[in-house]
Design goal:
The chain has 239 residues and is an alpha/beta fold. The protein contains five helices and 15 strands.
């Protein structure tokens, strides 16, 4: 499979981000500013720089607040997730999949601060997640084989692995398969609290071939708490 240009991205931004309260009491987490810059604009600017022309935001909590982005990003489209309060983000993936938006597409968590916009590249070859190597972690992580194919996903590891970041790319074939699997699981109430990454990397792992695309710890920051946000702001100021 050769490299080809990617034209589509889906940004998952339906959740409330309760751990970032009180900053998320009135706005969605992706719109919380880091040194004056809303988190999600680092994603949008990187997508624009890479020539990604179709960008869809799946929104839920305070969804109308995202309309303010239209002035600077007039090409944005939205999907409103009515289940954002009662289900996990598998609900957002299921919705995007029904519209065919996962095929040949980046899927990006809306609360990622992209310190290095080059992690979004104009071309891709195979389904992958960006991740960085660690000796151990208490966060989501991947085990891989010698070729970098993901063989296991977990919420922590006491051995060398790759720590997961919520930025992935799905080929047309894998995107169609992901959509079908997501909607198959979502029909069952018992699966509605899944994190969407578990679909391909846990419940249907033999049906997918997902690799890591290695990045560094400094490239992308996930912000979960006010303390993490303030620490990142200080880090940026000191650079």
């Amino acid at each position: 499979m050769g490299a080809h240009r990617v034209t589509r991205a889906v940004i998952l931004a339906a959740g409330r981000g309760t751990r970032l309260a009180p900053l998320t009491d009135r706005v969605p987490k992706p719109l919380v500013p880091v040194n004056g810059t809303p988190i999600i604009t680092t994603i949008l600017d990187a997508l624009n720089a890479a020539g990604i022309s179709s960008i869809t935001i799946v929104r839920g909590y305070c969804g109308a607040a995202f309309d303010a982005l239209h002035a600077a990003y007039p090409h944005l489209a939205y999907i409103d997730n009515p289940d954002w309060e009662t289900a996990n983000n598998i609900s957002s993936i299921a919705l995007a999949g029904r519209d065919g938006l996962l095929e040949d597409s980046y899927v990006i968590e809306g609360d990622l601060f992209l310190a290095n916009p080059a992690v979004i590249t104009p071309t891709q070859e195979r389904t992958n997640y960006i991740a960085f190597p660690v000796e151990a972690t208490d966060d989501w992580c991947f085990d891989t084989d010698a070729a970098g194919k993901i063989t296991h996903i977990d919420t922590a590891s006491d051995h060398p692995c790759h720590q997961m970041l919520g930025l992935s790319y799905w080929t047309a074939e894998d995107g169609r398969r992901l959509a079908a699997c997501a909607n198959e699981l979502y029909r069952e109430e018992c699966y509605r609290q899944l994190y969407w990454d578990e679909i391909a990397l846990k419940y249907y792992l033999p049906e997918f071939s997902v690799h890591i695309r290695e990045c560094t710890r400094e490239d992308v920051w996930e912000i979960d708490t006010v303390e993490e946000l303030r620490a990142l702001e200080e880090r940026i100021k000191s650079v």
